[in-house]
Amino acid sequence: MIRYTLTRSALLLLGLLVASVLIFLTLRVLPGDIAQLIAGTNSTPEQIEAIRERLGLNQPLPAQYLDWIGGVFRGDLGSSLLTGSSVTSELAQKAQVTVPLGIMALTIAILFSIPLGVISAMRRRRGGGTALSVGAQALAAVPVVWAGMMLVVVFAVWLGWLPAQGFPRAGWNDPAAAFRSLLLPALTIGIVEGAMLMRFVRSATMQAVGQDYVRTAAAKGLTRNAALIRHGLPNVGLSVITVLGLQVAGIIVGAVVIEQLFSLPGIGRMLVADVSARDLPKVQGELLVLTGFVLVVGFVVDLVHRVIDPRQREAS
Asked: Sign of the CA dihedral 239, 241, 243, 246?
């Protein structure tokens, strides 16, 4: 297990390095001159060149990359070209919105998708199971923006239960207000992602029903449902853990859109604004953190599989 963990850690580090190179090079091929943008339209060529030299933009690309990645290893993601603020500190501040939003959305997706997916599979030949399956298919096809607008109309406009937009100035110093402001966005992401997860849980549960070990348990006196719950669902859980890891990426993408829709001051909204402003150091840091988070989730999923599935340990 220790050897496997060290190997996976090395692959994780290699993946982060490759991602950092791709992010750095991709942003450098975007059209436009950052120094010109900072200097303004009435600036002289000498002023533009002075800004380029001050920011290190006149250095070769390998030197710029090594300077940036060296700072990353020291915990310094750089400074904003436009405001001079620390990228690390701004990310930490915006994460206070994005991280709770993602956790809430994932929790909502898990709470309704797993039990409803199992019920839909166990009652697949009945009307209730068919209705749940059709509902999951429909919800999975709904665009997250449209789902968010419909929830705003129902819960914010018609019922007035939840705020339609914004985040309290006091932040998490007012936990009740902060929670209420994130509930609708989290519901939007959680319902759409949960519908896709529910379809997978249903399919995995139906496959488990037909396995020999479930039929053998039923032949020994257990009911079909009891055999499935005791022997089938643990194996379904292994597959669900893998899909949950993939769902994290979907939640991150959904957060970028939803933070715009609900005017939440999170990482996704900051990323869109910084791309528009061509603030490359901030965009680099934001993309690297988001990419690293997805890679770390995959790393954790692999380790969890290794711990709870004895077949993988025996195969090694």
From this structure: negative
